[in-house]
Amino acid sequence: MDTSTAPRIAIIGAGPGGLICARILQRRGISATVYDLDASGAARDQGGTLDMHPDSGQNALREAGLLDEFLALARPEGRQMRLVGRDGRVLFDAVPPETATEDGNPEIDRGQLRALLLNSLEPDTVRWSHKLTHVEPLAEGVHRLHFADGSTAEADLVVGADGAWSKVRRLLSDATPVYTGVTFVEAGLDQADIRHPALAALTGDGTMMALDDNRGFVAQRNSRRHVRVYIGMRTDENWHRNAGIDLADVGAVREALLKEFTGWSPELLRFITATDTGYTNRPLYALPVPHTWQHTPGLTLLGDAAHLMSPFSGMGANLAMLDGADLARALVGSSSIEEAVRAYEHLLLPRSIEAAEGAAEGIAGAFAPDSAAQTLAHMTQNH
């Protein structure tokens, strides 16, 4: 792309996809501004751990010149996958190699990945405390961004990297996220190896899953000896309201969860009762499949804004980063923004449909009456 005219590129959302796009553009001499509603990069918890796939997440990090720094931070042992029965017996255990290699899927905390990407950007690339309220079309391909603090900005390309409830998507698609039928209640164990050694040992170095009869536990090893726990249920989206439970009432939530898991191993039930972080209700949503849109000059989407799917694909962050890298590569290699975005969307849409279909199948199998047998068969086949 001819950079002499300095195209105005606005990326909405400082997640992995938006940040990797900005980083690659800057390495190629193209400026981009990232707008995010958070007050700073450390304003809130970024969530659990991610495995970076060689052909997507690591591909993007290599293009960004950050692969070596990622491998230095990553946890290859975090690839361990363990399946446990509702009685607490280990049914399957896949232990990975001990060293990080580019052909594996090493794990990294979301917060560590975001910090790596933020630190790679030029100063003032990210404009914090900029909550987008709406996007106003102006001339062909030009849009004005309106923020909650009353400020505005104009852009020749607006990239919607603003997640599940994207404001940018509203100009391209009528689609809205739909409840998958599954809710996670998040809990956490601090200093797990010291404070909760039995649960830490059951979790292992990576991810432990115990899934059966539309319910389950997913425990993930994070850095700094933290174990993040997702207590999953196929249930009504408003399960707590229907039961008259205030989510702020820790005791009431605990009793409701224990009732849901009646008959499960006492050891697994301690993932509910031993939490150090309370409980956070996280209903899971997904965009309809397929999700496509009519090409519109000056606008495009990446990551969850384009293809929100359940976490049972293992592809969400990896696809977002590949999206960001592919969009940046298209902008660098094309003669115009219009040409670049068309080329990018030609890549994005087919692969996101395939991944979203896989994610829908994954969550359906993980939270089904026979999920224990389905999951064991899947793990045995793929390891």
Mean of pLDDT: 93
State the CATH class of the largest domain: Alpha Beta
CATH architecture identity of the largest domain? 3-Layer(bba) Sandwich
The shape is globular
Output the number of helix runs: 13
Strand content: 15-25%
Instruction: Characterize the biggest β-sheet.
Output: 7 strands, mixed
CATH superfamily of the largest domain: FAD/NAD(P)-binding domain
Instruction: Give the low-confidence spans.
Output: none
Helical fraction equals: 25-40%
Total separate domains: 2
How does this structure look, described?
- It is built from 13 helices and 17 strands.
- The model has no long low-confidence stretch (mean pLDDT 93).
- With 383 residues, the protein is α/β, with parallel strands linked by helices.
- Strand 4 (81-84) and strand 5 (90-94) form a beta hairpin.
- Helix 1 (16-27) runs parallel beside helix 4 (110-119).
- Strands 5-4-13-14-15-12-16 form a 7-stranded mixed sheet, with helices on both faces. The protein has a 5-stranded parallel sheet with strand order 7-2-1-11-17, with helices on one face.
- It is globular and about 65 Å long.
- It has 2 domains: 3-79 and 100-176 and 287-366, FAD/NAD(P)-binding domain (3-Layer(bba) Sandwich); 179-285, 2-Layer Sandwich (D-Amino Acid Oxidase, Chain A, domain 2).
Provide key terms for this protein.
five-stranded parallel β-sheet, FAD/NAD(P)-binding domain, D-Amino Acid Oxidase, Chain A, domain 2, seven-stranded mixed β-sheet, globular, 383 residues, alpha/beta, single chain, 2 domains
